[in-house]
Amino acid sequence: MLNLIAIFLGFTFFGAGMSKLFADHQFIGWIGPTWLVERLEEYGLGFYGKFIAYSQVLIGYMLITTRYKLIGAVMLVPMLLNILMITISLEWRGTPYVLGFLLFLNGLILWHYRDFWNILLHEGNGDKSIRLEGNKTRFGDAVWFIGLTLQFLAISVSFHQIWIGLALSLIGLVISLLSFRLDQINSVRKAEIT
């Protein structure tokens, strides 16, 4: 269930960022506004609008691939709160309720990882006995990062050929999801050696 929530939140924000940045906003997403960057450019804030969109892509990608869902969920809190304050300030009806629901879902992820908060808040308290173990490998991390890089490349390519941009985005997503399989293969090899 936790992965489904992360994937939903990830798709929501990954799609929102990509649809703002893709050529003619031709990317799948269910929340907007896709015209944010153009509107902010009128006030000299186009760079800020792109920063928001790229941040949505990064945070959403962390969640949708579930490899870094805790980091993505932590980063999503200030993103959601900022969007919530803007929608309340602009008196948008309904949107604050949707954002409240998204905050609730994100809170479920953060609650699931509540044991990590003591370590984060107290920086391990100097306790050398705290050791976090996981199945992730540096090679898997590198493969995941290649998938993320393809997302940002897809944005640029979309302005020249939309279908190639969409294909690069899909290929990047598949590559990042394969990083989990590579981690499993690596852990099996380590077990065979020992």
TrEMBL record:
Transmembrane spans: 47-64, 71-90, 96-113, 162-180
Superkingdom assignment: Bacteria
UniProtKB keywords: Membrane, Transmembrane, Transmembrane helix
Protein name: DoxX protein
